[in-house]
Amino acid sequence: MSLFVQKFGGTSVASIERIENVARRIIKTKNEGHDVVVVVSAMGHETDRLVDLAEEVNYQGLDARREMDVLLSTGEQVTISLLAMMLMKHGFNAESVLGRQANILTDKEHTRARILDIDAAFLQSRIKDGVIPVVAGFQGTDDSGNITTLGRGGSDTTAVALAAVLEADECQIYTDVEGVFTTDPRVVEGARCLKKITFEEMLELASQGSRVLHTRAVEFASKYQVPLRVLSSFNEDSPGTLITREDDAMEQPIISGIAFTRDEAKLTILGVKDVPGVASAILGPVSEANIEVDMIVQNVAADMSTDFTFTVRREDYDQAMEILQNIAKSIDAREVSGDNKIAKLSLVGVGMRSHAGVASRMFEVLAKESINIQMISTSEIKISVVIAEKYLELAARALHSAFDLSEEAG
Ligand code: ASP
Ligand code: MG
Q: Which residues, at least 6 apart from 191, have a Cβ–Cβ distance to it below 8 Å?
C-alpha cells in the first residue's frame, strides 16, 4: 500500500462534471488499495475573478494584502467542500480540510507567504480513520491565526509540502496538460512530453518560464526528495512526467528542454565610470524598489568608462527606467537606454555538464536564422540568451529541431 498526494488544478475542478471526474480518479487510486490525500485549487478563473473584485474596490495605496488573503482563500474552500461531498456521494469517507486545520504554518508575508512548518499529526490521524482528506491548496495560517496565501499557483507547493511531511510515495500534480514538454507545444509543433526529468532541470525550466509547476513547489520537492509526477486530469492513459533525482544509470540527453519568457525588459546605463561601488550604486535603488533583477552584464572598460545592462520583468520596466534616470544623473553617467520588447530563451539539460560545445552550437543555430543575441548568461546546466521578442518563436523552433528534441534519447 502506498500513500499518494494528488493535487488537482483549477481547470480540473472547473465544473461539477469535472469535479466528478476528479472524484473518479481518486476513487480509482483508493480501489487499488492506496491511501490518498487530496489537494485542490479554486475552480478555474475563480481566483482571477476575486482579484478583479478587489481591484474594483480600488484600494490602491492601501496595504490590503491581509484582506486579499482572506478573499483569495475562499476559492479553495468552495472546491474542497464540493469534492468532499462528491466523494461521499460515491460512498467514500471524505472530509474537507482548511489550511489552518491541516496545521500549515506560514510566515506573515501576506499574498506570498512561505510555509514554515506543517504538523502532520492531524492528517495522519484522519488517514488512519479511513478518511480521504481534501485539503485546500494555496492557503495557510500565520502564528497569530491570520489566513495567508502562498502566491499565485501556490497549490502545487501545498501538495508537495504535504507529501514531504507525510512521506508520501509520490506527489501527483494533475493538470490540463499531459506532463512536462520539451518546450511549449503551442509554439513548437514537435514538442514532446518527457517521461522523466531531474529536479534541477525542472527548477531551471520553471524559473525560466515553463508554467507547468510553481517554482517553489519544485524547490520543495528537490529539497525533501519528494518524487513528483505531473499528469493529465483528462487523459487517463498518459503516465505523465516523473520529476526525480538524477539517476546515474540513465543515459541523459544533453538538452532536456527549452524554456522561454516574453516577460522581459532590459535597461542600459551608458558611460559609467569603471570604479568600485558603481554596480551597487546602480542596483541598490532598484532592489530597494523591490524590482527583481535577472541578468546583469557589465563590460570591460576601454577608456575608464563602461556600460552596464540588466534585465527586469516587463511590468517593472517603467519604474526601473525612472530610477535609472535619477541614478544616471547622480553618478554622472552619459545616458540611459532600454528595450521592453525582448524575450529570454533558455536551453536546459544536466547533460551539459559533461558535453562541451552546447553554447557554440546554440549560437550557430541562432546565427543561421539571423537572430541577434543581445545578452548571454549561463549556469552549469543552462544557457540563456536575450533576443528580440519577435524572433522568439523562430528561435525556439530552430533550436528544438537542431538539438533533436522531438526524438526520445537513449
Ligand atoms: N487558486 C490559486 C491561483 O489561481 C492557487 C492555485 O491555483 O494554485 O493562483
Ligand atoms: Mg497551477
A: 181, 182, 183, 184, 185, 400, 405, 406
* Distance in Å, CA 156 to ligand 2 centroid: 6
269-283: per-residue pLDDT in tens? 999 998 889 899 999
Residues having CB closer than 6 A to ligand 1 are 9-10, 41-42, 47, 75, 137-138, 152-155
Superfamily of domain 3-176: Acetylglutamate kinase-like (3.40.1160.10)
pTM here is: 0.88
Distance 205 CA to ligand 2 centre (A): 15
Orientation angle between helical segments 358-368 and 392-402, nearest 10 degrees? 130
The boundaries of every CATH 3.30.2130.10 domain in the chain are 258-402
CATH 3.30.2130.10 fits 258-402, yes or no: yes
pLDDT digits (tens, 9 = 90+) for 291-349: 999 999 988 877 888 999 999 999 999 999 999 999 999 999 999 999 999 999 999 99
Q: Where in the chain is the domain with CATH 3.40.1160.10?
A: 3-176
> Rounded to the nearest 5°, which phi and psi values hold at 210?
-70, 130
